[in-house]
Amino acid sequence: AQREGHGFVDMYSPLNNLTLLERKTNPDFTMIRDAVHPDPPGQIVMAYALIEDIGLRSPLSAIRIVPGPKGELVARPAGGEVSELKRTDDGLEFTWLAEALPFVVPDDALPGAKMLHMGHRMSREAVEIHGLPAGRYELSIDGAVVGTYDSQALARHIELQDNDLTPQHQQAKQVATLNQQRNAGPVRSMRGEWSKFQQFARLEDQAKSAPDNEGLKKQVEEARQRIDGMDQRVAEFEAAAKEIEDQIFAINQPKPRKYVLRRVAGNANAARAKANSIVPANAQLEKLFTRTAPITGGLTEGPAVAPDGSIYFSDIPFGEDRGMILRFDPRTKQTTVFTDDSHKSNGLIFNAAGELWACEGANIGGRAISKWSTKTGQRTVVADSYKGKRFNSPNDLCLDAKGRVYFTDPRYVGDEPRELEHRAVYRIDADGSVHEVTHDISKPNGIAISPDGSTLYVAEHDNGTDKIDPTKPAPPQGEMKIYAFPLDSEGNVSGPRRVHFDFGKQKGCDGMCVDTDGNLYLTGSDPSRPGVLVVNPQGKEIAFIATGPAGQSSDDPDKPPVGLPSNVEFGRG
């Protein structure tokens, strides 16, 4: 390019430099798994190199509020307008109309964006507030709490561009999601039509140069048939793309946002009191059941509280044993066998009729959702397939207030062929019909619904394999997060997902439940910190219930870690 007098953008160097930097702590790290095509994190690094080279990098907005000469509040914004600014008894409030939305990248590209500090560099959304009395302040935007900040931090400035709790971030995520759907759907289909036409034109030119080549003539005719009706198909794809573009335009409009800063009383003492109200300081962990068996591995799962207060749970062995469902009686402290053939049951739950519903996994299990009568012991299969294809390995389930059953369908063990393209979340309605809720998640596991039914929480527990082998080293793990999906009244996802909690490099959540305040109780099975995390509706950890010693490791076969929880449920009383 230099020799010919052309400009160029070096996209390789930042990709390579970031890879080498990450490999200092993770030797296997790569952003180009097939050594040819960059993965989404690599693509965002390359895109950023272009953005920076052509000079599009700049902060998004800055809200700066300072005391005036007479003590009044003065706004000095950039990238938008501040109105209705006033002090309140415990802080201040104002309305903010931004000129643009934050730049939100798809979740699969986030690692690259984080390594670049991309949000800070090209989408910085700063808030700087001076003159607040010392203390901590809760910031809400349009009624949604997005964080709590110290007055000194607010005076220095905070940045909101990466905060997925803000309404503007969620608005931008909707735009990004729709654009992704447009590109992956009608736009990709149009490119496919163009490729077919190019192939036809190329073959036709070749045939003109070799008029006696019958094989080439046949290829031309086959290519001609593939482009028959192309104009109609392209028109349909263009119309579909236009429909999505109209949705994007409707969503991508300026919206005034109400910002409220409210001083939080009590600070650390209040936080400790809140944590103690969830887990009393003198609470003790009590072992209720244990057994030994000649198996290669296994776990207990799916605690479910029956109408009589007894606790049913799954005993899942690896291998040929089909597993059991056991029943613990809190009054007698005795555990009995409900069934010695659970069909590899995993997650369990009781419905309002007192029926025990079960997720049955793979590895010679039922690969179905079933229900049991605890009076007769009769098992009935409710569903074992979606659109004629068998489930992968139903894992966990929950109920909403209307009695609809939501369940996750990943795969962790089993030699049975997978028939479904996706690992997904499904819903079974009262009429027995099965509906896919979402497959916008790599490996769904634990699942819960908020008390008001408006949010579906799903654990992303990507352990990197469809077949756990206890005799071999564990493969590199994928994402370990809790995603929140908005639901409409019909039980369908009504908007883009958001990350509610991120376990980072630790092993994430297997099972979860939710209390009446909307707090999530998440099992954390990482040996370094085994226990149950309590996370509030804003995605902040507010309490922790240890189930095993901290600082353990999986690296010593002679000293395996203990106290790693798989699921959690509330008892009665």
The parts where pLDDT drops under 50 for at least 5 residues are: none
Number of helices: 9
CATH architecture classification name of the largest domain: 6 Propeller
* Count of extended strands: 31
Overall outline: globular
Task: Determine the mean pLDDT.
Answer: 88
Order of strands, main sheet, comes to: 3-4-9-6-7
Please indicate the count of domains: 3
Can you offer a commentary on this structure?
The chain is 23% helix and 30% strand. With 573 residues, it is α+β, with helices and mostly antiparallel strands. It folds into three domains: 12-169 and 255-269, no CATH class; 180-251; 288-514, Neuraminidase. The strands form eight sheets. Strands 3-4-9-6-7 form a five-stranded antiparallel β-sheet. It has a four-stranded mixed β-sheet with strand order 2-1-5-8. A hairpin with a 7-residue loop joins strand 15 (356-360) and strand 16 (368-372). The chain is globular. The mean pLDDT is 88.
Features:
573 residues; 31 strands; Neuraminidase; alpha+beta
Gist of the model:
Helix 2 (40-53) crosses helix 3 and helix 6 (167-209) packs antiparallel against helix 8. This protein has helices spanning 12-22, 40-53, 110-116, 118-122, 151-156, 167-209, 214-227, 230-251, 267-278, and strands at 61-67, 73-75, 80-88, 91-98, 125-129, 136-141, 144-150, 158-159, 257-264, 298-305, 311-317, 324-329, 334-339, 345-350, 356-360, 368-372, 379-383, 385-386, 389-390, 397-399, 405-409, 424-428, 434-438, 444-449, 455-461, 480-486, 498-502, 509-514, 520-524, 531-535, 541-546. The chain is of the alpha+beta class and 573 residues long.
